[in-house]
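Sanity check. The docking grid for adenosine-5'-triphosphate depends on where the pocket ends up, so I'm generating a full predicted complex first rather than guessing from homology. Inputs follow.
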Amino acid sequence: MQKVLTVAGSDSGGGAGIQADLKTMTVHNVYGASVITALTAQNTLGVQDVSPVDLDFIASQFDSVFQDINFDAAKTGMLATKEIVILTSEKFKEYNQANLVVDPVMVATSGDLLLESTAVDAYREKLLPLAKVVTPNLNEARVLAGYEPNAEVDPEELARKIYDFGSEYVLVKGGHSNIEATVSGRPPQVTDILYDGKNFTELSGQYIKTNNTHGTGCTLSASIASNLALGLEVGKALEASKQYITRAIKDEIEIGSGNNPVNHLVKCIERGEAT
Ligand SMILES: Nc1ncnc2c1ncn2[C@@H]1O[C@H](COP(=O)(O)OP(=O)(O)OP(=O)(O)O)[C@@H](O)[C@H]1O
Ligand SMILES: Cc1ncc(CO)c(N)n1
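Predicted complex below; grid placement will be based on this.
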């Protein structure tokens, strides 16, 4: 069985972070393991508290899993502090991890901060050079590229600037763009752009008008890592993952009274395997 590692924070509410990643890996039929970087007290309404895990203990988790298990792919999510970004980069380098997907989580859907601002340089200098794919949303892309979070910048320009930090591919996600204002007469689409240093490829899917997008980014990056582990090349992995996240958003589930999570199990349900 293919094995995938997630290095991320715990979401007690179960919609994002480690919990989203392991569910997503499971429905992709790959084995998921985890290094937990931070604990969040969180639900569909927001993040009530955050406690980063002690740095030495994060290092112990890395050594435990890497000394025993060879991972076909890995992903990072919430890394919380500059020191955790640096440690994570060092461990991936030390253990020569291939197929690394970096989701540079900075802010939760609820608006709560999940990364200290001084960690951005560590992402640029240490982690991005090790990544196969980096998957910023528009705000994260602006910050990584050195702009203000709300600056009006062409996503292709952002992708070019981020590519220069050394990842093999950059996926700038379009989930937070003003989609409805840009469509005329055709079903609204949400488009992510993939850059490989030479060409741009658009990945489009149906836009779903909903606030229930808690965990979309985590779920997408866990799906990409799973598809890479299964042997798909990057373009095909992203196409499959885009289809999966669109279906997971569309299949709304009622969990709490705030921004509900996507349905990570949608693939299972469609295959009739969930029951
Ligand atoms: N309303 C929507 N309808 C359809 N697809 C969407 C919608 N919102 C986001 N997506 C898709 O979900 C994926 C994740 O994108 P998004 O921009 O939401 O990530 P994110 O902001 O990192 O997520 P998170 O809010 O979990 O941090 C992308 O493929 C994006 O196109
Ligand atoms: C633990 C965690 N990681 C990532 C996100 C981003 O959605 C979140 N809300 N919580």
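Relevant for the grid: The longest strand covers residues 31-43.
Also worth noting: The chain has one domain: 3-271.
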